[in-house]
Amino acid sequence: MARDMSDKEILQMELDQLKIEVSTTRTAVSVNCKETMEWVEAQTEGDPLIKGVSDDKNPYKGDKGGCIIT
């Protein structure tokens, strides 16, 4: 796409992109990290990787036999 464009058109595209980026609201990394940690901690209650799955809801639990290769 850029091969078919003149230098002026490419520079205009870059300028438009920079205008979009400069208008984006920014927040400090520390604020984002705090919010992410709070969200993760709020989600841990229902997370099966942290709490585990109860036996009655676990389809892989129990003795279902095995595979015998003869």
From TrEMBL:
Keywords: Cell membrane, Lipoprotein, Membrane, Transducer
Membrane topology note: Lipid-anchor
UniProt xrefs under InterPro entries: G-protein_gamma (IPR001770), G-protein_gamma-like_dom (IPR015898), GGL_sf (IPR036284)
GO terms for MF: G-protein beta-subunit binding
Cellular compartments annotated: Cell membrane
Biological processes per GO annotation: G protein-coupled receptor signaling pathway
Lipoprotein is among the record's keywords: yes
Keyword presence, Cell membrane: yes
GO cellular component, one term: heterotrimeric G-protein complex
CDD domains associated with the record: GGL
Pfam families listed in its UniProt record: G-gamma
Boundaries of every G protein gamma domain copy: 1-70
Quaternary structure, from the entry: G proteins are composed of 3 units; alpha, beta and gamma.
Family assignment from sequence similarity: Belongs to the G protein gamma family.
Function recorded in the entry: Guanine nucleotide-binding proteins (G proteins) are involved as a modulator or transducer in various transmembrane signaling systems. The beta and gamma chains are required for the GTPase activity, for replacement of GDP by GTP, and for G protein-effector interaction.
Name the UniProt record assigns to this protein: Guanine nucleotide-binding protein subunit gamma
